[in-house]
Specification:
Blueprint: E1 7-16, E2 19-20, H1 22-31, E3 36-38, E4 51-53, H2 74-90, E5 102-107, H3 113-126, H4 135-138, H5 143-152, E6 159-161, H6 167-180, E7 185-192, H7 197-204, E8 234-242, H8 243-248, E9 256-265, H9 277-288, E10 297-299, H10 306-320, E11 326-328, H11 341-355, E12 357-358, E13 373-374, E14 380-381, E15 386-393, E16 397-404
Parallel strand pairs: 5-6, 5-7, 10-11, 10-15, 11-13
Antiparallel strand pairs: 1-2, 1-8, 1-9, 3-4, 7-8, 9-16, 12-14, 15-16
Helix pairs in contact: 2-5, 6-11
């Protein structure tokens, strides 16, 4: 693919438990600082799982107009701030772009659960007249796309993808399609946040949450003591543009290009058929025109359940050879952010390309059986030209995305 045909990332907006903003997040990530701790947004003492990655100290009134606060869930408030940061990072003023040339494609795994819980409490305790009229959309999966587009006057192709953890990569792929069809700019990625009793109960129903009480040994993918994941809130939003158009407005070096994408669905449980993760990765590499030996790092899905970890590690060992490529899972410091996790990993991969360093996987002591080169005990300097990001969602969704340095 020539430079003029590339869909590139020109701006990053990060809202993560370890940092609100790109550089704060990146500094904490390279240092391996973890934000996993006991939940503070509600009393978790009655629940079997009590740890999460929270974005602490976020005051929406410091970032958004007061009229938006009662209309929006915390998830949407974080997404709006993330979009603002992404535009600023890309040096784009939305009002200067034709409104039908900009679109928004996000993902969501839960919608605005906390807002919905609050309004249901009002309904049960006080009656329907106390339910906010904003409940009609504040809980909805598509609300982030809608609110970002309204705030920034964006009337181009937009949408939402709902496929749990894999959805964030699926949204970026859809954003890439829209750029290739001629749209000038797409905001894409995801921010999820459902750390409330209603959302927590829904997450517990998966049976995949860690019940550990030690934050440093709670979320342990590829570790002999793996026992499930720790949830978190946040994610990343990215500005996607055509390389030629970005260059024409003065962008000298985009973060990277979205070079390849693949997605599959696993067969139903109990059929005895193998998982389809390898096919998703192979499809992404084929779409990118990349050979396995051209991938410099893999950002793993990191389910932290022994069976799912074995599927992922065997996929990587099978495609790249035993310990054939560095693998990292910085999400052990933030928790799994559901649909926000994949875009945050893509943003992290962009920063790895920019700075020539692979961030570590905090807290994990990898088991020999996995036969992967997991980066632990600090960042690793490396020439990163291409990175593979993997995301898998509950229900068998598999997505993989390749990012590439732009010359």
């Amino acid at each position: 693919m020539t430079g003029n045909e590339q869909v590139v990332v020109t701006g990053l907006g990060v809202a993560a438990p370890t940092g609100l903003g790109v550089e704060q997040y990146w500094e904490a990530t390279l240092k391996g600082i973890s934000a996993v701790d006991r939940i503070s947004r509600f009393d978790p003492s009655g629940y079997p799982a009590q740890l999460a990655g929270e974005i602490r100290g976020f005051v929406p009134e410091e970032h958004l107009p007061s009229r938006l606060i009662p209309q929006t869930d915390r998830m949407t408030q974080l997404a709006l701030v993330g979009a603002d940061c992404a535009f600023a990072d890309a040096q784009v003023q939305p009002k200067e772009v034709p409104e039908y040339e900009m679109g928004v494609v996000t993902a969501s795994s839960s919608g605005g659960f906390e807002f919905g819980q609050h309004e249901l409490r009002n309904l049960w305790s006080q009656g329907p007249q106390y339910v906010s009229a904003y409940q009609s959309f504040a809980w909805f999966y598509a609300v982030n796309s809608g609110q970002i587009s309204i705030r920034n006057g964006m009337r181009g192709p937009s949408g939402v993808v709902v496929s749990d953890q894999a959805g964030g990569l699926d949204a970026l792929a859809q954003g890439r399609r829209q750029i290739r069809k001629g749209t000038q700019l797409i905001v894409s990625g995801s921010v999820d946040a459902s750390l409330c009793p209603w959302g927590w109960t829904a997450q517990l129903s998966s049976g995949r949450l860690s019940t550990a009480t030690d934050p440093e040994r709670a979320y342990l993918p590829f570790d002999p003591e793996a026992r499930g994941h720790v949830p978190g809130e946040g994610g990343a939003l990215l500005i996607l543009e055509d390389f030629a158009r970005a260059s024409s407005r003065g962008v000298r070096t985009p973060y990277c290009s979205i070079a390849g994408y693949g997605a599959t669905l696993d067969p139903p449980a109990g059929t005895g058929r193998p998982a389809n993760l390898p096919r998703a990765v192979e499809a992404a590499l084929r779409d990118a025109g990349s050979a396995p030996d051209e991938i410099d790092v893999v950002f793993a899905d990191a389910a932290a359940l022994p069976e799912l970890d074995r599927v992922e590690s065997s996929t990587l060992a099978g495609l790249f050879g035993p310990r054939g490529v560095p693998v990292t899972a910085p999400k052990t410091a933030t928790g799994r952010l559901y649909s926000g996790a994949g875009p945050l990993d893509v943003a992290t991969a962009c920063l790895s390309v920019r700075d020539g360093v692979i961030p570590p996987t905090p807290g994990v002591r990898p088991a020999e059986e996995h036969d992967i080169d997991l980066v632990v005990d600090g960042p690793r300097e490396a020439r990163v030209r291409q990175a593979l990001v993997i995301a898998r969602g509950h229900g068998g969704f598999n997505s993989a995305l390749v990012v590439r340095a732009v010359d």
